[in-house]
Amino acid sequence: xxxxxxxxxxxxxxxxxxxxxxxxxxxxxxxxxxxxxxxxxxxxxxxxxxxxxxxxxxxxxxxxxxxxxxxxxxxxxxxxxxxxxxxxxxxxxxxxxxxxxxxxxxxxxxxxxxxxxxxxxxxxxxxxx
Length: 129
Description:
elongated; mainly alpha
């Protein structure tokens, strides 16, 4: 019985590094899936504010990352590279959103014109006699 336990412990120690690599790969694939979801949601939610060029570019990177994630022979390096490329493209969505928001918001000076000056009203009062 003790021999079996020792054998199992030795096997576990032998495969610890391999298991850690598998766990890392699973974590990277989960992160990739979350990034894909975020990219698709950002495109859908902000469709009108994003140029077709950015949409096409982000969709291409989404497809590349999805293919890499689903590839059984994918390496950590290839998955990391595809994830970084999609992240870079997603930053363009943020830039497009900022430009669209800036175009809709009037400059600060025009927005509050005259709001800083208090309005003065003359009032007549009756004093008791």
